[in-house]
């Protein structure tokens, strides 16, 4: 009888000690990466299944490329056009253009000389009132207009003879750079339509199915990556001061007796409301602090994400 009483007392003591141990609840997690849709295109091929282990570079799925390929070809053509326009600016005007401008100047000068001569002949006749004053005015205006045509032809010839301005060449180069950048961006989008695994890991989710057209930026695949999982827990406010980054911890998984060794790698400085599954007794009315405890042992490589965990911290 006395032995039974001693055993019962020891059991109660162990339970009491365990209840006094600082602890927090949460879930087991892996690092997640989402692969967004680079364009709103239809899924034409899916190469993997959910839960499959893949290596880096493994094809996951393929999007329709027809429209993006056509847009790329259009942008490449625009870049080529801009390059040819720049080359034309750098070469300057053709000799035939200069010759044409000189001929236009000569023609304008001849017309101006004829208009001035006609006006000169009408002036004395106008003073003698042998012709109408309106005819003299029209002749004077025609002579002035012809002189203006001569000055315009001279300016056009001078512009061609001096060649292309450096500012025009700079603008042409900027246009070429912009067109090439747009084509390069579209080329990168085209390559991303063949969705591959950026890292080795597990395909956790494929939200869309074959034939679906996901909107731009929607996650086409979600992967779990990393060497080992970690526990995402909520530290109650009463024990926050005693939990620090680098502290050792024991991670207990639901349905698993043995504890996993862990280490606190992050704890938030701002409190948050505690999720329902992390409430313990009086802690339901308190705030908690989000923390992460990395698994330091070698037994966490095949553990699933989302499993409830309980983390105990050494006093």
TrEMBL record:
Ranges for domain YbhG-like alpha-helical hairpin: 71-185
Taxonomic superkingdom: Bacteria
Keyword Metal-binding attributed: no
Coiled-coil intervals, chain numbering: 65-118
Predominant place of localization: other
Subcellular location: Cell envelope
Endpoints of the signal sequence: 1-18
Keywords from the named record: Coiled coil, Signal
PANTHER family assigned to the protein according to its UniProt record, in alphabetical order: EFFLUX SYSTEM COMPONENT YKNX-RELATED, UPF0194 MEMBRANE PROTEIN YBHG
UniProt protein name: HlyD family efflux transporter periplasmic adaptor subunit
Organism (species): Lysobacter auxotrophicus
């Amino acid at each position: 009888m006395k032995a039974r009483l001693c055993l019962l007392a020891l059991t109660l003591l162990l339970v009491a000690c365990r209840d006094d141990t600082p602890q927090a609840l949460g879930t087991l997690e892996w690092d997640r990466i989402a692969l967004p849709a680079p364009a709103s295109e239809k899924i034409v091929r899916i190469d993997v299944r959910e839960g499959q282990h893949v290596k880096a570079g493994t094809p996951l799925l393929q999007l329709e490329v027809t429209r993006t390929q056509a847009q790329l070809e259009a942008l490449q053509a625009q870049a080529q056009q801009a390059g040819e326009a720049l080359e034309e600016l750098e070469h300057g005007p053709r000799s035939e253009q200069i010759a044409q401008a000189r001929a236009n100047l000569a023609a304008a000068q001849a017309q101006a000389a004829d208009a001035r001569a006609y006006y000169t002949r009408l002036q004395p006749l106008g003073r003698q009132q042998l012709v109408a004053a309106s005819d003299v005015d029209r002749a004077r205006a025609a002579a002035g207009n012809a002189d203006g045509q001569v000055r315009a032809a001279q300016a056009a010839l001078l512009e061609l003879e001096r060649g292309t301005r450096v500012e025009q060449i700079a603008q042409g180069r900027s246009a070429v750079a912009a067109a090439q950048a747009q084509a390069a961006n579209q080329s990168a989008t085209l390559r991303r339509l063949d969705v591959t695994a950026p890292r080795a890991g597990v395909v956790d989710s494929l939200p869309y199915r074959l034939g679906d057209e996901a909107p731009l930026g929607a996650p086409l695949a979600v992967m779990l990556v990393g060497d080992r999982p970690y526990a995402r827990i909520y530290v109650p406010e009463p024990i926050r001061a005693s939990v620090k980054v680098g502290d050792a911890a024991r991670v207990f998984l639901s349905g698993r007796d043995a504890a996993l060794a862990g280490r606190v790698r992050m704890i938030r400085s701002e409190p948050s409301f505690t999720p329902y599954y992390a409430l313990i007794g009086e802690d339901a009315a308190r705030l908690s602090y989000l923390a992460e405890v990395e698994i330091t042992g070698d037994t966490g490589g095949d553990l699933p994400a989302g499993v409830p965990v309980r983390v105990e911290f050494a006093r």
